[in-house]
Amino acid sequence: MNERKDVVIIGAGPAGIQAAIHAVRKKCDVLLLGRIERSALFSAHVENYACVAGVKTGEELLLAGLDQVKNFGAHLMEDDVLKVHQDDEGFGLELESGVTVFTRSLIFANGTARKKLKVPGEKEFFGKGVSYCVDCDANFFRNATVAVIGNASAAIDGALTLTGYAGKVYLINRELMASKELIAKLEESSVENISGTWVTEIAGQDAVQTIVLENGEQLALDGVFVELGAKGAMELALELGIQLDLDTMSHIDTNKKTETNVPGVYAAGDITGHPYQMAKAVGEGCIAGMEAANFAKKQKRKDKS
Q1: Which of 13, 43, 123, 129 registers the highest number of CB atoms within 10 A of its CB?
Q2: pTM of structure
Q3: Which Pfam families does the record cross-reference, listed alphabetically (predicted)?
C-alpha cells in the first residue's frame, strides 16, 4: 500500500505539531508521523511559555496540539519510519506497518535524545563493540555474533538488517511492541528472539565479549546494538546525505529557513541543536511548516507544467 503527500513530518512533539498546523493551513496534504509520548515534552511541566498561564503538563499541551492538527485537516499516523530514500518526485518513507509514503517535502522534527541502557560496560565499550546505529556500523560485524537490545521497531528492523552481515543475531527484549507486519518479518527470519528479559551488564576485556541477562545467563558475542524506541533522526538523516553540524556532528545543520542541504528537506526543534526549549521548537516548526508547504506547491506546479 502506497500513499502520496505534499508534506510529511517525522515527530509529534511541539516542533512537528506546529509544522503540521502551518503546512496544512497552506492547503497542503500533510501527514504527521509519531507518538506524542516519545516527545521530550510529554513528561515535562511547562510554566515559561508565553501566553500560557500557570503550570501545564507537556501531555496536556501535546494532546491539545494534536486536536488542532486534526481539526485543520492533517493526517496522523502513529507509525515509526524504518527507512527513507530520495526519488525523482521527492522522498519515500518505509513505515513499520508496511506502508510506503511518498512526499514532495519532508520535515525532521523527531528530536535527538539517544536512550541508553544504563548498565555496566555500556559506556566503557562504546565504539569497542557497543553501537547505537545498525545502519552505520553493521558492516564492521560481518560474520560476527551480535545482539540487538530493544522492544520496538528500531530494534526489530536493526536485527533484520544485521542478518545480512552478522553470522548470528540475537534480539533481546522484554516484550515486542511493534506492528504485526514487522513482528511477522522477525518470526520468518533467522534472528533468535529472546523475549521477557533484559541486559544487566556488558562485559569484556579490550572489546565486548559477553552480555549478562537478568537470570544470570551469559551470551558470548562480538557486538551489542542498543536500539531503544524508533529509529533516530541521525540515522534517517544520514540515509539522505543530510549535513550535520561540523562541530559536534550531533545535530542537523539548517539555515534561517530551516532548510537542510537537501532541497525539500527541513528540520525543526531539538534536532537542530540548543536550546532545547519548547519556544524554539514551536518557532522553528512554524517556519519549517510554511517553507515545506511552499516547496511542495512549487513542485506541484512543475509537475503540471
Answers
A1: 13
A2: 0.78
A3: Pyr_redox_2
Looking at the chain, the whole-number percentage of residues with pLDDT higher than 90 is: 69
Task: Please identify, in words, the CATH class of the domain defined by 2-112+232-304.
Answer: alpha beta
For the chain, what are the domain ranges? 2-112+232-304, 130-226
Superfamily of domain 130-226: FAD/NAD(P)-binding domain (3.50.50.60)
Spatial CA neighbour of 107 closest among 244, 300, 274, 291: 291
Question: CA-CA distance, 24 to 22, in Å (whole number)?
Answer: 6
Residue 152: which of 240, 78, 250, 58 has the closest Cα?
A: 78
Average pLDDT, the chain: 92
Name 192's bridge partners. 170
